[in-house]
Write a structure and sequence with these properties.
alpha/beta; 6-stranded mixed sheet; 18% strand; elongated
Length: 561
């Protein structure tokens, strides 16, 4: 149950704390006062999409928090996010929206993503918006409503698995059923590419080695001259000692006194180590000098090989490794095409069995849906009777279609609003008020199937008036005995039926617009109901009528206890 909604800098609401109560909570106010902004704030803290325009003008960020009570610890979304309510079953959701579009979300102080917040929120509270009734006009949604009610998701998942296997099999067959001329052209192309790459004799890592060797050969004279100079300095010449000989002489000079002190011994040993190291370096330089063979012919060969790799890379891949991978793919594709007839025959043999599995899974899904449809029809009709639609008939039609991702049936809701009229698609005959009541009936039935504790109705009374409005109010009162109900309304019948009534009003201060949300007492409620009924001219008669409306609503609520 939603206990407290805290709002900061959302549109015209600078700051507000709305403490909701169990049962039926109603929000009323003038058009544009900010009632829908309260709903927008709820949607935001439950992970809904938001716009930067939602942030109050002049503010750098907006903040919303929602405190829920009686939250079960085993709620699936909480378990997946690693979050638990506190020991009293309280869960605090928070969302901060920054001007740069970034969001900071938390659940009981733990950081979570917007997606996690949305998943958690969807299992705590359901918002029925002003235009949700229009979803009934989209017949593609009807099957989804039926699946939710009948809980046919496991059967649907089993069907989709078999359907996916069939689609993959059909796709493989289509790819193998290539035009013979196109197949011949493709095979010629593959054979040419394979031959060209095989002739190249590509080796992993050779390109780096070639580049290094080419750079060395291009600078051969400079390289050899540098080695000769280093060799002369280290090993010396016919008339000059090199570094090795000079260090040997220094070592020999200290040999006789090396034992006179520890310090002399250390110097002697370091000279010895230095001579050994320089000796090794001199040997390495000599080896490099002797093994280097500068050949213009080799440079031409390396240049030619690099040029070949460059041309191949433009056609087959950015690196030698990529070209080798492409070669493997070409071989596999050619092999598959050469054996395509055998493969095609083998796959086509599997096709009847795959189609039968889809048909069987589709039949099981249809059976489950039809069983659910019969129960849903009864439940919807019962709800509609309660909503003063006594003459209405409601039916769910199944039309066989070719197997698709959603099954083997087209599902649509049919109704007849008047006695003697044939059943027809809802989109063709339902008025705005009828759509609103049918959607309310559907929401109530679906809510009974779910563990969601709070239902929010944003102007569910659209297109409804008079006796029908009273029936809608009574239905919401009945629902509120099982679940918490929050309702934004313009109808006095709905507002009077509420257990808790909030007034949403807008005013100005220091040139800025502000919205206030106030929990009203009985006298304030009478004045508000009189305003809703009569507009700006509130008379004693209207106030007396408002009082009678409150008394009648109280009597009805008591009868539900």
């Amino acid at each position: 149950m939603l206990e407290l909604l805290h709002i900061e800098n959302i549109a015209v609401i600078e700051e507000a704390d709305i403490r909701f109560h169990p049962g039926f909570n109603a929000l009323t106010g003038e058009t544009g006062a900010g009632k829908s902004i309260v709903i927008d704030a709820m949607g935001a803290v439950l992970g809904g999409r938001t716009s930067r325009d939602l942030i109050r003008t002049g503010a750098s960020k907006a903040f919303v928090s929602a405190e829920f009570s009686q939250v079960p610890a085993d709620l699936p979304a909480l378990e997946r996010s690693g979050i638990t309510p506190d020991e009293d079953g309280v869960l605090l959701l928070q969302r901060e929206m920054l001007g740069d579009g970034k969001n900071q979300c938390r659940a009981n102080g733990r950081p979570i993503t917007v997606a996690q917040l949305r998943e958690i929120g969807s299992q705590l509270l359901n918002i029925h918006g002003q235009h949700d009734g229009q979803q009934l006009l989209d017949e593609e949604q009807h099957g989804q409503y039926l699946d939710r009610f009948g809980r046919t998701e496991p059967v649907l998942a089993a069907y989709r698995e078999q359907y996916g296997v069939l689609r993959a099999l059909e796709e493989q067959i289509r790819s193998l059923q290539m035009d013979e001329a196109e197949k011949a052209r493709r095979m010629d192309s593959l054979q040419f590419q394979i031959s060209e790459l095989e002739r190249a004799g590509l080796q992993p890592g050779e390109e780096e080695e070639l580049r290094e060797r080419r750079e060395l050969l291009r600078n051969g004279e400079k390289y050899l001259s540098a080695l000769q100079g280093a060799d002369y300095c280290l090993s010396g010449g016919d008339e000059t000692d090199g570094a090795v000989a000079v260090l040997q002489n220094a070592e020999n000079a200290l040999y006789g006194i090396r034992n006179l002190s520890g310090e002399i011994m250390e110097i002697y040993q370091r000279l010895q180590q230095a001579r050994c190291e320089v000796y090794d370096l001199a040997a390495i330089v000599q080896d490099k000098r002797q093994e280097f063979d500068f050949s213009p012919a080799e440079l031409d060969e390396v240049e030619s090989r690099c040029d070949l790799l460059y041309r191949l890379k433009k056609k087959y891949g950015a690196t030698v490794e990529d070209m080798l991978a492409y070669l493997d793919r070409c071989r596999q594709e050619l092999d598959a095409m050469e054996t395509a007839d055998d493969t095609l025959a083998r796959l086509e043999q599997k096709l009847p069995a795959a189609r039968k599995k889809v048909a069987d899974a589709g039949a099981a899904l249809t059976k489950a849906r039809k069983a659910a449809a019969g129960e849903l029809e009864k439940r919807i009709l019962r709800e509609l009777r309660d909503l003063d639609m006594n003459k209405v008939r409601f039916s769910i039609e199944f039309t066989p279609v070719a197997p698709g991702p959603e099954g083997c049936d087209a599902i649509r809701f049919l109704m007849s609003a008047n006695a003697g009229e044939d059943l027809k698609p809802i989109a063709r005959i339902a008025s705005g008020g009828e759509l609103a009541r049918i959607m309310l009936a559907l929401k109530n039935v679906l809510a009974e199937q779910e563990s969601i504790g709070t239902l929010v109705f944003d102007e569910v009374d659209t297109g409804v008036s008079g006796r029908a409005a009273q029936k809608v109010a009574e239905k919401l009162a009945q629902v509120s005995r099982r679940k918490q109900v929050l309702c934004v309304t313009h109808l006095p019948q709905l507002a009077a039926m509420a257990d808790t009534h909030f007034s949403v009003s807008k005013g100005e201060r220091d040139g800025r617009t502000y919205t206030r949300v106030v929990n009203m007492d009985r006298e304030q409620r009478k004045a508000e109901l009189a305003r809703i009924t009569g507009g700006s001219r509130v008379t004693e008669a209207l106030l007396e009528s408002a009082g009678e409306l409150l008394d009648a609503a109280e009597t009805y609520r008591v009868s539900l206890s």
